[in-house]
Design goal:
elongated; about 60 residues; mainly beta; two-stranded antiparallel sheet
Length: about 60
């Protein structure tokens, strides 16, 4: 693999996927060796659904 040295004088675009499961709305991100740490507050919808309750995706007897 190749390594890139991070420079504080340059702008970088970093992308990733994440799924909010529950708990805090704070997203903590950082690079290796705790470089470029950032905490981002995510918008949380007021209607978060009803975890564990039947919803529109319910399938009777879906099998193992």
């Amino acid at each position: 693999g190749s390594f890139v040295t991070i420079s504080s004088s340059k702008a970088y675009r970093i992308s990733f996927r994440a799924k909010w499961l529950g708990g805090s709305n704070q997203l903590n991100t950082r690079l290796y060796f705790n470089r470029v740490p950032q905490t981002t507050l995510l918008d949380v919808p007021e209607n978060r659904g009803t975890p564990g309750a039947p919803n529109s995706q319910l399938v009777e007897n879906a099998g193992p």
